[in-house]
Amino acid sequence: MEIQGEIVNYSTFVYHWTYDKLISWGVPVEQANWVNLFVLLGLMLIVLGLIDFIVRKVLVSVLTSAAKRSSTKFDDYLVSNRALVHFARLIPLVISIQFIPVVFSGFPGWIGPLRKLVDILLVLGWVMLFRALFRSVRDHLRTKKGFQDKPLDSYLQVVNIFMFFIAGIIIFTMVTGKSPWAFLGALGAASAILMLVFKDTILGFVASIQVSTNDMVRVGDWIEMPKYGADGDVIEINLNTVKVQNWDKTITTIPTYYLITDSFKNWRGMQDAGGRRIKRAINIKISSIRYLSREEIERLSKIQLLASYIMERQAEIDRYNAETKADRSMPVNGRNMTNVGLFRQYINRYVQNHPQIRKDMTMLVRQLQPTEHGLPIEVYIFTSDIRWAIYEDIMSDIFDHLLSAIKYFELEVFEAPASDDIRNLRLPMAGGGKGGAAFQLTE
């Protein structure tokens, strides 16, 4: 109380001293109070301006230069997030609180509201300062290996919401003079409206926690979500949205809680495993599938990848046919080699010897169910390089070779008839009997 009384006496003394000076200089008494107010207000603004200049231009500049010269990175993040600037803004506000009783001593009814206004600005200033500090902590954690793929933006937004909520309670208490519990009580009564207004934020907050806890998505993951046109790398995860940069460099924004409610594909498992799957089939024309003659088997045994297999297989077939006394005048009796079977074995051995195919992952060459497009021979393997362009090159090289090699097995790849095939058909002329004319469809 004594200190407060001394401040009041000092402010009254300064005010009356300047007031008396103005009267002595000939200012009318009825106007002296207002003139004194503007004089003291002008002096306060000049002093605060000088303090702001000194703090921001001198102190902040010196600290910024020191941060750039230091070897640590955290102070650089403080500078980039303007933490020093927000701190500098607090100093003039703190000093202005001491000026208000002096300047407005002649208008005591203004002192209380003005001090409340400055207090509110101080609360907001502290919030902005802590916001900058937490941003700096986020940027610093992003450089750490264990936090690079974590949704730090979501956590930061939750902290910001909490800070603004606390600041709102403090400002409410300052303005109304009521207890914070009164504000919380009123907030409870309006909870239904708040739930409706902040529905997306609440859902996003819960989804962010689930995504982080279950390690469903990280920054840098390649995800596919066809329902929302997303196919690319995750570049940002925050409280409400997930940003995906598609392969065509467009950006798709997905609400965070959709990652919980809808299905999506995350390619992180493929990237971590170090092998990318090839799953492609060659459709064989069924009419070209047949048994092989001895001469054809001898010719195909010159293929180095098949030489040992053909020799062992033929010995096994001959032994079986001899034991069962199969009538070899009819090829369907006993066991025989087929051109499609040898081609499948060739593909199997070719991919097993390919230097860019993972041998420790699934390697499968299989027949699928025949369709109207022929007999599919599917190749199911994994490349050792997961980079998109190199993966496509490896797959193309493999199937370039297989499509070129298929003719040596007297097989044909199924193709739907093209327009040229239809034009080149030779059809008999309608009504033409024996010796009748024929015509050819040509252009």
Automatic annotation (TrEMBL):
Subcellular location per the Swiss-Prot or TrEMBL entry: Membrane
Source organism, top-level taxon: Bacteria
Mechanosensitive ion channel MscS domain: residues covered: 200-268
Predominant localisation class: membrane
Keyword annotations: Membrane, Transmembrane, Transmembrane helix
Keyword Ligase in annotation: no
SUPFAM superfamilies in the cross-refs: Sm-like ribonucleoproteins
Entry's transmembrane regions: 34-55, 90-111, 117-134, 155-175, 181-198
Cited PANTHER family: MINICONDUCTANCE MECHANOSENSITIVE CHANNEL YBDG
Name listed for the protein in its UniProt record: Mechanosensitive ion channel protein MscS
Organism listed in the record: Parapedobacter defluvii
Lineage, highest ranks first: Bacteria, Pseudomonadati, Bacteroidota, Sphingobacteriia, Sphingobacteriales
